[in-house]
Amino acid sequence: MSDIFDKIIEGEIPSYKVYEDENVLAFLDISQVTPGHTLLVPKKHVTNIFDYDDETAEKVLLVLPKLARAIRSTNPKITGMNISSNNGVSAGQTVMHSHWHLIPRYDDDNLNETLVLTIDHSDDYNQARYEEIAAEIKKALN
Ligand code: 5GP
């Protein structure tokens, strides 16, 4: 059965993509806990960390630092980044397709040092703003 991220990977559901190769896709998280909040997912359906084979783990983790640097470079106010993955319902996983949150941190973001991933700022965003953020990250990856 395909989940929402399978549908995004297949292009059946739109997303603001920032990076794609044969093995992974990165796109903006709709909730934008902070501006630039991005999800990195393996294209292969992997439910969570417990299901990774070595090759999938390698493909995902090789992209993670490159993507983190690109996101950081889009805004000098980004001074840190939380990278996290919820694995299993008890850990707060809501989409059962493994994903890595990259959440830029700003000195003035007024969030706790450790983030609550249920924050949802999507009401503050429109298509143009998502496209603008995604375009900046894509540019930084080139
Ligand atoms: P989890 O709670 O499983 O760690 O994170 C799931 C994330 O997926 C949430 O941060 C949520 O905002 C994001 N999300 C859920 N549905 C969609 C969607 O249709 N598009 C995008 N871009 N993000 C989504």
From TrEMBL:
Motif (Histidine triad motif): 97-101
Transmembrane domains' residue ranges: none
All copies of domain HIT, residue ranges: 4-112
Superkingdom as given in the UniProt entry: Bacteria
Entry-linked Pfam families: HIT
UniProt cross-references to PANTHER family, sorted A to Z: ADENOSINE 5'-MONOPHOSPHORAMIDASE HNT1 (PTHR46648:SF1), HIT FAMILY PROTEIN 1 (PTHR46648)
UniProt-recorded name of the protein: HIT family protein
Provenance organism: Fructobacillus parabroussonetiae
Higher taxonomy: Bacteria, Bacillati, Bacillota, Bacilli, Lactobacillales
